[in-house]
Design brief:
The structure is a homodimer. The first copy, chain A, has about 475 residues and is α+β, with helices and mostly antiparallel strands. Helix content of chain A is about 30%, strand content about 20%. The interface between A and B is large, with 89 and 89 residues. Chains A, B: Pfam families: FAD-oxidase_C, FAD_binding_4.
């Protein structure tokens, strides 16, 4: 038995500076282990040099340690590695595109990195039922491109689509901008091939490749959002959605947050089956876009809040008519101050550039504290106001953008440089406030290392105990992705 | 520790006649237990007489045994009962509307029936986010009626809607006729309150009441389709969908099954965001409807296959235009022999009456062997042909209807009366054929008692072991819904 991880002290800061101590129950990787890995994977499957891209996250916020990256090419090779590591108590971190924001896919101390980069051969698609089966290492954008030729698309989209992998998307239950239309990945997942970190490296084919199967516990769904704690996903079966023939975008200027919620309610009713995004930007992020990136609002008047609405449908005339009627109703009911319907794809691109550039714009202030939380709508924007008042002049900006249609806010607090005094004001206050107001401290990014100190906030002991018992069934030696989430 | 259940012999027949032996590790309910139950629930919470409706299923196919039905009124009362039963090794069967088709919600030997009928008080709905939170004992139709007043509806619909309860719908991952549009219940579930059958009667609040929450394992989804094996669901949080303002129906006559699949593909592309049903009837069920119920086809020509397509949308003109264009394209591509678009709600009702009366029509032949399986489309109708050839004159009819859009077929084989020779031809052949052809032996009805003898077909030992380990975490004494599913 391994030693139980030491209880992590409650940190002042929500930063990677707080790292759990190494679990001395884990073995260190020795020369004999490297030879064994080469035996399983061949010499080109074991990388010892130039691995910095695999032990550091892309934001540079998380700098981990490690000495080896493994590149299995098949489920069987993953099984061989996990069986070996389990028997030898070697900790392992599975890694997809390494595009996460919470430090979940890099080693903390000296875990072996199990890269999925070479598990990307098998792809099949049933274009009548819309069912995709593919290896876990496929990049999301590649899948989307393959499906586009067949009249379909992936049911979710995110900024990292050019690098993130479908296996990682499943492991993090990736959200993104289309969730209001197509639902979370739970709506689409049908089956998984997973390898367990047990002494046999057990290979499980869970779920099925058909749309309806009520013959067993629906275990594939337990892997959605499991952050590499339970097993390594090597293959995914899921539904895709018909590619829309018409995509319309509109930008609305709104006077109050209350009216933003009324616009959302009307959009869900009027745009019903065609709404595909409902994104939110406040005046402070618009100002930040202007001053830091010289990006100007598409609306002529400056308004306290902006909303970007998108529809996706099969008939352009119908979608334009619905969107126009929706805008007319917003105006006639005095819900909006201004509204523009994109007349061309260039117009639409300008609108989306504002929303998509927001994460970049904030970084130009110097230092940025990013957040990803969910809140009931009545508290959604109150958080911004509370944090503005609390941070005062220590913050350069307190800005908010996000997926309003999903209750997901990306509140960003910037400063000229990292500021401990500001951090002490923010944490744990912000997360405690979110939980006290019925929210979730992680909407779509997960827990990883970043939010581990707060992951028990508002969680009852019974649930925490259940989660640990579940982890123990799948990963009896606790070797998979330690120092994170569970 | 309880004794492990004896291995069930492989039966010749797929009927309730095959019953697992009583597990003698379970205690029998004594007078002292009844007094304890009355102590927890009051006298009116414990029913000992006239309980036949609770120990027999509605089809009369499953006749169980039992002496007491309990009616808790709250999560706390469920907790008190499960803690008591767990400590005293008394087996319990949770029961919702008792509308299932596989004998999953009735006691087999002498299990205590835990009825959810009185847990139906709390109902709340956020009509901006479309999030419903309600007690598990609410009847599906009641919820639908409440939501209709708020402009929303439940995202699934089934024949039993007037009796089935939302807790049971979750426990069976109910499917129905709108799955092609709104997805399975996995697409909608956000949170559950469940009581575990452990010695504390642990109450768990799993998931949350917001749309995005990536802070823990997504355990609520493990209860979807768990058939009362893991815990008792007392409260459900899920999304509802905007109520469509326009519903259009059309009936199509098709020459070959291959063309039915081409029509499906076209419908998914052309009707894309508005398609809400794609139902299938073959000529034999149409003939059965005519001869047994005097229900006549709405198409003038008799065709080998009929398809009922439904759209649900927010704009009647748009939906009519899409449906007309779809029918035109079907005709111009020679995919259909005939097609009728319902011009009124009476027309639509006539079309749906054919589909919805199919389960009744077959019973009029005398005896009916009902099936609910999923298959890849290339094998969907082959099963019907194979069973026709195999059953020959022993069968009165071999008819097929079902949710073609989901790959779900309800193959029904009728006879004048129960026929053992026919049963021996059918079972286990039919289920083995389904599994050998990439299908699932239960699409939406579940395993229960009916399909327990076949539940391991095609399942690998690793998955079966995992399922048992999971069951053991939630139900350490194995008292919940024994002799079924797991």
């Amino acid at each position: 038995m391994l030693k139980i991880l030491p209880k992590i002290r409650r940190p002042v800061r929500c930063l990677s500076a707080v790292v759990a101590a190494r679990n001395e129950g884990f073995a260190k990787v020795m020369q004999s282990d490297l030879l064994a890995f080469e035996n399983f994977l061949g010499k080109d499957g074991v990388q010892k040099d130039d691995i910095s891209n695999h032990i550091t996250d892309w934001t540079g916020q998380f700098k981990g340690h490690g000495s080896v990256v493994l590149y299995p090419k098949s489920t069987e090779e993953v099984s061989a590695i996990l069986a070996y590591c389990s028997r030898n108590k070697i900790a392992v971190v599975p890694q997809g595109g390494n595009t996460g924001l919470v430090g979940g896919s890099i080693p903390v101390h000296d875990e072996v990195v199990l890269s999925m980069n070479k598990i990307n051969k098998q792809f099949s698609f049933d274009d009548t039922m819309g069912i995709l089966q593919c290896d876990a290492g496929f990049i999301l954008e590649e899948l989307d491109n393959k499906l586009a030729k067949l009249g379909y698309m992936m049911p979710f989209d995110l900024g990292a689509k050019g690098s993130c992998q479908i296996g990682g998307n499943v492991a993090t239950c990736a959200g993104g901008i289309r969730l209001i239309r197509y639902g979370s990945l739970h709506a689409h997942l049908l089956g998984l091939t997973v390898v367990l970190p047990d002494e046999q490296g057990s290979v499980l084919h869970l779920g099925s490749s058909i749309r309806k199967d009520n013959t067993s516990l629906h275990t594939p769904h337990l892997f959605l959002g499991s952050e590499g704690q339970l097993g390594v996903i090597t293959s995914v079966t899921m539904t895709a959605v018909p590619k829309p023939r018409s995509v319309q975008s509109a930008m609305l200027g709104v006077e109050s947050f209350k009216k933003c919620c009324e616009v959302l309610k009307l959009a869900k009713s009027s745009l019903s089956e065609v709404i595909s995004s409902f994104e939110f930007l406040d005046a402070d992020i618009m100002e930040c876009l202007k001053s830091n990136l010289d990006l100007h609002p598409v609306l002529s008047k400056s308004t306290p809040f902006s909303i970007l609405v998108e529809t996706s449908g099969s008939n352009e005339d119908h979608d334009m008519e619905k969107m126009s009627a929706f805008l007319d109703e917003c105006l006639s009911k005095n819900l909006i101050l201004d509204g523009v319907l994109a007349g061309s794809s260039a117009d639409a691109a300008n609108m989306w550039k504002l929303r998509e550039s927001a994460p970049l714009a904030v970084t130009r202030d110097g230092y940025v504290y990013k957040h990803d939380v969910s809140l009931p709508l009545e508290n959604y924007y109150e958080l911004t106001n509370v944090m503005k008042a609390r941070c005062g002049d220590l913050a350069k900006r307190v800005v908010t953008y996000g997926h309003l249609g999903d209750g997901n806010t990306h509140l960003n607090i910037t400063a000229g440089k990292r500021c401990e005094e500001l951090e002490e004001l923010m944490y744990p206050f912000l997360y405690e406030w979110v939980v006290a107001h019925g929210g979730s401290i992680s909407a779509e990014h997960g827990i990883g290392q970043l939010k581990l100190p707060y992951s028990n906030l508002g969680k009852e002991s019974e649930e925490r105990l259940l989660t640990k018992k579940l982890k123990n069934i799948f990963d009896p030696n606790g070797i998979l992705n330690p120092y994170k989430m569970i």
